[in-house]
What we know:
Elements: H1 2-29, H2 40-63
Helix pairs in contact: 1-2
Amino acid sequence: MESVTAGFAGTAFALFGAALLVWTGARAIRRAPVAHGVSPVASTTLATFFGIVFLAVGVWCLIRV
């Protein structure tokens, strides 16, 4: 039963992390702000960092299944 939960959590984390990285990359290529009212460098850096973290957690959960 825990493998189903870990699989679902891993998939959700991995999809969110990948989508965040793709979205951040698309915004950075177009030189559009990633977050309004925040430094462009800081927002791009933090979004990239958290995208990588979520993707890594998702992969870790899927490996544990």
